[in-house]
């Protein structure tokens, strides 16, 4: 019998996806099946006021993140370049306070959620 979570992960392939360039230093890989995601965060500002925000992230199939013939885990400082409809945006891979730059989305480790922050570098 198929696990419900495993079946749901298979449905992610049906979401709109795009090709991005994932790089670490001079090395990179073009990933054809990246999906844009958002994660809600709750936090307090410096005055103690509760705030709600969103962090952009990319859902990337774990098996596709291969740089220099090695399966790679995202780390802070990596760069994602996203070109869509003639516009190129550059993002730094980075975690939020107290969290890692990425996490697996399922117990089978088939998909990574990579947290990013836009930079003005092109």
Question: Concise description?
Answer:
The protein contains one helix and nine strands, in the order H-E-E-E-E-E-E-E-E-E. With about 120 residues, the protein is mainly beta. The longest helix has 8 residues, at about 5-10.
What can you see in these coordinates?
The chain is mostly beta strands. Helix content is 7%, strand content 54%. It has 1 helix and 9 strands, in the order H-E-E-E-E-E-E-E-E-E. A hairpin with a 2-residue loop joins strand 4 and strand 5. The chain starts with a helix and ends with a strand. The model has no long low-confidence stretch (mean pLDDT 85).
Write the layout of secondary structure elements.
Blueprint lengths: L3 H8 L6 E7 L2 E18 L5 E12 L4 E2 L2 E2 L7 E6 L2 E7 L8 E3 L6 E9 L3
- What is the alpha-carbon Rg in Å? 15 Å
Q: What is the ordering of alpha helices and beta strands?
A: HEEEEEEEEE
Compute the number of structural domains. Answer: 1
Note the main sheet: 6 strands, antiparallel, barrel
Task: Catalogue the unreliable spans.
Answer: none
- Report the end-to-end length measured between terminal Cα atoms: 48 Å
Q: How much helix, percentage-wise, in residues?
A: under 10%
Strand content: over 45%
Please tally the β strands and state the result.
9
Pairing-aware structural class of the strands and helices?
A: mainly beta
Mean pLDDT: 85
| Helical run tally | 1
Q: Which descriptor suits the 3D outline?
A: globular
Identify the strand order in the major beta sheet.
1-2-3-9-7-6
């Amino acid at each position: 019998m198929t696990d419900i979570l495993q079946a749901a992960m298979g449905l992610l392939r049906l979401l709109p996806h795009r090709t991005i360039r994932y790089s670490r230093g001079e090395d990179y890989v073009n990933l054809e099946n990246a999906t844009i995601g958002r994660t809600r965060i709750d936090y307090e500002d410096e005055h103690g006021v509760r705030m709600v925000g969103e962090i952009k992230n990319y859902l990337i199939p774990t098996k596709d993140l291969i740089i220099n013939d090695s399966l790679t885990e995202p780390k802070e400082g990596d760069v994602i370049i996203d070109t869509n409809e003639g516009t190129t945006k550059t993002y730094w891979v980075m975690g939020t306070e107290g969290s890692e730059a990425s996490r697996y989305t399922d117990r089978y480790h088939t998909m990574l959620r990579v947290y990013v922050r836009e930079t003005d570098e092109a």
